[in-house]
Every structure is written in structure tokens, then in C-alpha cells.
Amino acid sequence: MGTVVLHFSRDTWIFSIKRIYTCYTILYTSGLI
What we know:
Blueprint: H1 2-32
């Protein structure tokens, strides 16, 4: 049970980082243009 929660948290963490990085890239590109 603990391993499943840890694995889920890790996937959520990676997904959140990818989302934040994508949003940041879009904002940076928009500001650059």
C-alpha cells in the first residue's frame, strides 16, 4: 500500500513539473515574440 502511494505521488510530481515547465515555456515564448 505504501509503495503504491509513493509511486502515485512520484508520477503526480513528474506530471506537475512537466505542466509547469510547459506553461513557463509558453509564457516565455509569448513574451519573447
